[in-house]
């Protein structure tokens, strides 16, 4: 990355504020050792958004331990602003990651008494109120733990009331939640505040959303959340759908198979690509809040944004770990590799 690019990221208006987990992925290697890598869905989203040129702030605190310092350093390198630059005493969250033969990760989390959970609804709200150019707030994944509902649900409600576009990435991790029913209820409560929902086919299964297939489940989920304008459904190697409240349904998948190294961070890169593309489109709509812009999206705008999101995920899965692409790389991939727009 050039010094000019670093400077432009440092001065970019802060349009996005992200709240949720930042942790270290301990990735199991064939020799039995573990490779520590910065991770966490919302942490990855911060990095991916900043790399796509979106001014982004991470709202949660980070630890003063070695892992916390590494997490903070990586965010700074990628151009993410820290709402709480002073480290805290609590330790860094850990996730032990085992990859199957297809590169799909399986997680075990260690999250008691950790730094990224040392937050309050009031603190998150105050940090957002200090950002005059804020357009988008996002959370999801481990932040939707029922034990943290008193933090994130009031914050989401307040951000929607303040006119910000609320984005919720369901990204369920049911294997590490002690009370699955309470977890599912909290996720549904968070989705009820969202203007934009992202969910995978696996998320819809864990949420027990009715429907004959993943698309039908996604249609049901969008209908069940009348405040939502847009729902992104990811299907892994089978591509993705973008559903709009106005009835628009767009599909995209890579026309040729990818050389997948692993899928760590693919969904986070997808969501970042989607939001980055929509935010760039919204810049031409002077005087319109981003949530209003999303509510009025055309079918063509949805298809373009979906293609950029898919390209962002595709570039991520072809590298080891979470390495989100920049705007130019994702745009170039999209241009050179036209997507299939008709599901087989």
Helix content: 25-40%
CATH H-level homologous superfamily name: Ribokinase
Specify the overall morphology.
globular
Beta-strand portion reads 15-25%
- Total helix count? 12
CATH topology: UDP-N-acetylmuramoyl-L-alanine:D-glutamate ligase
**Topology pattern, helix = H, strand = E:** HEEEHEHEEEHEHEHEHHEEEHHHHE
As a whole number of angstroms, the C-alpha radius of gyration is: 18 Å
Give the distance, in angstroms, between the N- and C-terminal Cα atoms.
39 Å
What report would you give on this structure?
There is one protein chain. With 344 residues, the chain is an alpha/beta fold. It has one domain (13-19, 39-60, 119-340): UDP-N-acetylmuramoyl-L-alanine:D-glutamate ligase (3-Layer(aba) Sandwich). The chain is built from twelve helices and 14 strands. The chain has helices spanning 3-11, 41-51, 66-78, 121-129, 149-161, 180-191, 201-206, 214-224, 266-282, 290-295, 299-317, 327-336, and strands at 14-18, 23-28, 34-39, 55-58, 81-82, 93-99, 105-110, 136-140, 165-169, 196-200, 230-234, 240-244, 249-254, 339-340. A ten-stranded mixed β-sheet has the order 5-4-1-8-9-10-11-12-13-14, sandwiched between helices. The chain has a four-stranded mixed β-sheet with strand order 3-2-6-7.
Descriptive terms for the model:
alpha/beta, UDP-N-acetylmuramoyl-L-alanine:D-glutamate ligase, four-stranded mixed sheet, 12 helices, 40% helix
In short:
It contains 12 helices and 14 strands. The chain has helices at 3-11, 41-51, 66-78, 121-129, 149-161, 180-191, 201-206, 214-224, 266-282, 290-295, 299-317, 327-336, and strands at 14-18, 23-28, 34-39, 55-58, 81-82, 93-99, 105-110, 136-140, 165-169, 196-200, 230-234, 240-244, 249-254, 339-340.
């Amino acid at each position: 990355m050039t010094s000019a690019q670093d400077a432009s990221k440092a001065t970019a208006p802060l349009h996005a504020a992200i709240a949720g987990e930042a942790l270290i992925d301990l990735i199991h290697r064939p020799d039995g050792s573990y490779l520590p890598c910065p991770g966490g869905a919302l942490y990855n989203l911060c990095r991916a958004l900043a790399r796509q040129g979106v001014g982004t702030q991470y709202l949660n605190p980070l630890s003063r331990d070695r892992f916390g310092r590494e997490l903070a350093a990586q965010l700074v390198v990628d151009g993410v602003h820290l709402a709480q630059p002073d480290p805290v005493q609590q330790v860094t969250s850990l996730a032990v990651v085992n990859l199957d033969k297809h590169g799909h990760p399986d997680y075990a989390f260690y999250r008691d008494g950790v730094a990224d959970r040392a937050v309050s609804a009031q603190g998150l709200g105050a940090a957002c109120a200090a950002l005059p150019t804020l357009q988008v707030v996002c959370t999801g994944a481990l932040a939707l733990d029922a034990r943290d509902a008193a933090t994130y649900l009031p914050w989401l409600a307040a951000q929607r009331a303040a006119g910000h576009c609320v984005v919720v990435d369901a990204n369920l991790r049911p294997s590490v939640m002690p009370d699955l029913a309470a977890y599912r209820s909290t996720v549904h409560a968070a989705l009820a505040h969202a203007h934009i929902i992202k969910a995978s086919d696996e998320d819809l299964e864990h949420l027990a959303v009715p429907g004959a297939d993943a698309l039908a489940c996604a249609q049901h989920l969008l209908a069940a959340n009348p405040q939502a304008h847009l729902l992104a459904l990811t299907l892994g190697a089978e591509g993705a759908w973008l559903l709009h409240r106005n009835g628009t349904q767009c599909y995209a998948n890579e026309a040729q198979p990818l050389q997948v190294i692993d899928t760590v961070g693919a969904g986070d890169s997808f969501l970042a690509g989607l939001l980055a593309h929509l935010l760039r489109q919204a810049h031409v709509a002077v005087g319109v809040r981003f949530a209003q812009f999303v509510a009025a999206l055309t079918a063509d705008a949805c298809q373009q944004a979906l293609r950029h999101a898919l390209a962002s995920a595709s570039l991520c899965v072809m590298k080891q770990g979470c390495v989100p692409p920049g705007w130019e790389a994702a745009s170039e991939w999209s241009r050179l590799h036209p997507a299939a727009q008709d599901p087989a």
